[in-house]
Amino acid sequence: MIRIIHLREKCIGCNACVELAPDRWKMSRKDGKSVLVDGEEKNGIFIALVGDDELKKNQIAAKMCPTNIIKVEKVQRKS
Amino acid sequence: MSPAGSWEALSSALHAGADSIYFGVEQLNMRAKSSNNFTVDDLPKVAELCAQYSAKSYITLNTIMYDHDLQLMRNIVDAAKANGITAVIASDHAVLMYAKKKNMEVHISTQTNITNIETIEFFSVFADVIVLSRELSLSQVSDITREIKRRNICGPSGKLIQVEVFAHGALCMAVSGKCYLSLHSHFSSANRGACIQNCRRDYIVTDKETGYELEIDNEFIMSAKDLCTIGFLDKIIATGVEVLKIEGRGRSADYVHTTTKCYKEAVRSIADGTYTAEKIHQWTEDLSTVYNRGFWDGYYLGRTMGEWSSSEESQSTKRKVYLGKGLNYFDKPKIGYFKIEAQSINVGDEIIITGPTTGYVHAVVSELRVNDILVQQASKGDCVTIPIEEVIRPSDSIYKLVDSRTGNSK
C-alpha cells in the first residue's frame, strides 16, 4: 500500500498531477484546484491509501508539483 | 500604482501615498506561488482600506486560464464587483469577456504584450486602461498615446484609453513575462504565477564534444537588472502615459514604502517644476537601500539591449536584520514597547517597524530603556521602550538596518 498526502490549500491549479496520474487526480471546476480521488480530509490535508501499482505515477506527480504539496510514502505492513 | 502582496505591503503603499494598488486573490495571478495572496473573503477589507485613502484597487487575474479555472475566475470577478474593487487586470480573453458582461472595469495586463495602436483599438472594446509591453522605447510609447488621442480611441467608460507603463522593479529576460524556462527546468510555470526565477542564477556551458566546461563570462547572463526610471521620469510622463506601475508583489513592506514614496515625490516635483538633479540623486540613493538587483533604464531609452545583473543576491545598500516584536504603544509619551528576540539594539541604530496595519515605519533609536532604566544597548530577551512618533502594534516586527557590505549598523 502507499499513502498519498495532499496539502490542497496551496494548490495553484496547474493541472500537472492530473496529466501525470489521471486515475488519482482530477481538477475541481468549483475552485480550480486539484482533487485527490478518494482522499479523506483531516484539518485541510487530504489522504488516500492506494495500491502499490499507483506508486510510480504518483511519485512523478509529487516530484513535478510546482508547489510541492503532494507527498507519496510507502506504508509499512504490520506483521 | 503600487504592489500589495501582503497586508503589510498594502498598508505601506497606502501610507506612502499610492494612487492605486494591485493585488491577487487565490491562485489565478502571476504571483500565485511567491506572494502571500489574499482570499475572496479579504476583498471587503481591502476595498475599505483603499477607500479610506481614496486609492483605487486593482485585482490581478492575469495568468493563462484553463477550463477548470473558469468558475473560480467568474467567482473572483463577481466578488470584486460586489465589494467595490475598482478594476480587474486581465490578459486572457475569457476574463475580458466575462468582466465586460458584468460591467466590471478591465485593465489589460502587460502579459498581453501590446506594442501597437491597432491592438489598442482592438482591446478598447473591453478595457479603459492598457498596460504596454515592457520592451517599447519612449518614442514608441509617445506614438501610441498620441494616436489614441488623434483617433479618439475610447474604452467602455466612454473616456479616452489610458496608458500604463512599468516604472520600477524587476524585469525579466522574456518578452513581457511570457517565459517557458521555469516550466522547462522545474515544471513550475511562470505563466501560472509559479516562476522559480532560474534565470537569476549563473550557468556553465559544456562543450559536448570535449566535455570542457566554460563558465559564462558575464556570469548571470539571463538575469536582467531592475528597472529604475526615476532619473528620466519627466521623459516618461511627457510620453502621455497616465499610470506608472511599480513591480513587486513578492517584495516586502520596506520596498513598497520606499519605492512608492520616491516615485510619488518625483511625479509631484515634475508637476511643480522642482525635478532637480539633487533630488534624483537622493531618490536613487533611497531606492538603492531596498531590495534591488542593480538598476538600469530598461528598454525606454533604446540604447542598451540588455543589462545583466552581476549577482543573484539583492544589491541593496542596506540589509534589514530581525530584532523582535512589538508589544504595546503608549500614546501620550509616544513610546513603543518591544521584545527583542534576536541580535542586539543600540542607541543610534536605524530601525524599521512593519506590520499589517502599521505598514512601514522608519526611525532612529534616540533613547533606549530596559525596565525604565536608560541603557546604550539591549539584547535578546530584553523588553525595551523606544520613543516613536507613529503608533506601533503587537502584530508588528522590528528590524535594524545594517550596511549590506560590512554588516555594521552605523
Protein traits:
A: alpha+beta; Alpha-Beta Plaits; 4-stranded antiparallel sheet; two-stranded antiparallel sheet; globular; B: 410 residues; alpha/beta; TIM Barrel; Elongation Factor Tu (Ef-tu), domain 3; 3 domains; 8-stranded antiparallel sheet; 10 helices; 25% strand
Q: Any guess at the CATH architecture of chain A?
A: 2-Layer Sandwich
Task: Look up the CATH topology of the largest domain in chain B.
Answer: TIM Barrel
Count of folded domains of chain B:
3
Strand content of chain B: 15-25%
CATH fold title of chain A: Alpha-Beta Plaits
**What is the number of strand segments of chain B?**
22
Largest interface: pair, residues per side: A-B, 18 and 21 residues
What is the assigned CATH homologous superfamily of the largest domain in chain B? Ribulose bisphosphate carboxylase, large subunit, C-terminal domain
- Uncertain runs of chain B with pLDDT below 50, 5 residues or more? none
Radius of gyration over C-alpha positions of chain A, nearest whole angstrom? 12 Å
List the uncertain runs of chain A. Answer: none
Residue share in helix of chain A: 10-25%
* Known CATH architecture of the largest domain in chain B: Alpha-Beta Barrel
Shape of chain B: globular
